[in-house]
């Protein structure tokens, strides 16, 4: 059986978790205790020397990096498929995955650090630019790139609802808001979505990590 090493509050882990649930792949879940630095212990570093979750172990095959894992799961367990059929749709799916990973995901820590304060104008502008770009790909479809769920929805669905729960309003984006509401009612999302108290605890951990990282950089700069 496939073993899935993850943390339930990690949005990167949730990409793989959602895919496993949507594809109904049997797996053994192993929670890695990130707040208590289990990912830095020798046992986990033997699985991933870069100390990140998620990791999967499928018999003798081990894989790190969430996007690579998603591709592997699709190829190894092709039904139900999470990849569209046309080359254009596949390319669009891959593009949207990378936009989420490279443009949107890095903004999460900034939003968390703002806490209850209004977002900085520059950050707010960047987020709106990304959301406008994503909204354009949903105007004529139920899901990103088509009328069936695909891996772009998995990656976006582990990220965009999180921004909404962190206080970023999707009201200016009615199509994206409709997609977000629909996708979070799917059973896989209901199973994997953190409670409000879990989300708040995760934010506190992230803020602590960021402050520690900032102090380390300041010491190195001296």
What does the secondary structure layout of this molecule look like, with pairings?
Elements (H helix, E strand, L loop, with lengths): L1 E5 L4 H12 L4 E5 L10 H4 L9 E4 L2 E4 L1 H11 L10 H18 L2 H8 L6 H16 L14 H7 L2 H6 L8 H10 L3 H6 L3 H26 L1
Parallel strand pairs: 1-2
Antiparallel strand pairs: 1-3, 3-4
Helix pairs in contact: 1-3, 1-7, 4-7
Describe the structure.
Helix 1 packs parallel to helix 3, helix 1 crosses helix 7 (151-157) and helix 4 (87-104) runs parallel beside helix 7 (151-157). The chain is built from eleven helices and four strands; from the N terminus they run βαβαββααααααααα. The protein has two domains: 2-80, Glutaredoxin (3-Layer(aba) Sandwich), CATH 3.40.30; 87-184, Glutathione S-transferase Yfyf (Class Pi), Chain A, domain 2. The chain is globular, with a radius of gyration of 18 Å. It has 222 residues and is an alpha+beta fold. The protein has a four-stranded mixed sheet with strand order 2-1-3-4, with helices on one face.
């Amino acid at each position: 059986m496939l073993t899935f090493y993850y943390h339930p509050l990690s949005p990167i882990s949730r990409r793989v978790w959602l895919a496993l649930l949507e594809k109904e792949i049997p797996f053994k879940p192993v929670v890695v205790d990130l707040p208590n630095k289990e990912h830095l212990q020798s046992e986990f570093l033997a699985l991933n020397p870069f100390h990140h979750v998620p990791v999967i172990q499928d018999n003798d095959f081990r894989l790190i990096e969430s996007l690579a894992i998603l591709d592997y799961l699709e190829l190894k367990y092709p039904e139900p498929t999470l990849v569209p059929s046309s080359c254009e749709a596949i390319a669009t799916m891959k593009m949207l995955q990378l936009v989420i990973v490279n443009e949107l995901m890095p903004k999460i820590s900034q939003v968390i650090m703002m806490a209850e304060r209004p977002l900085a104008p520059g950050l707010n502008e960047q987020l709106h630019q990304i959301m406008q770009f994503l909204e354009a790909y949903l105007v004529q479809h139920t899901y990103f790139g088509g009328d069936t769920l695909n891996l772009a929805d998995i990656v976006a669905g582990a990220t965009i609802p999180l921004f909404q729960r962190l206080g970023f309003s999707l009201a200016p984006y009615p199509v994206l808001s409709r997609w977000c509401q629909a996708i979070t009612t799917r059973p896989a999302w209901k199973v994997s979505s953190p409670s409000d108290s879990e989300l708040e605890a995760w934010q506190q951990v992230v803020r602590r990590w960021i402050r520690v990282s900032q102090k380390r950089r300041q010491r190195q700069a001296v």
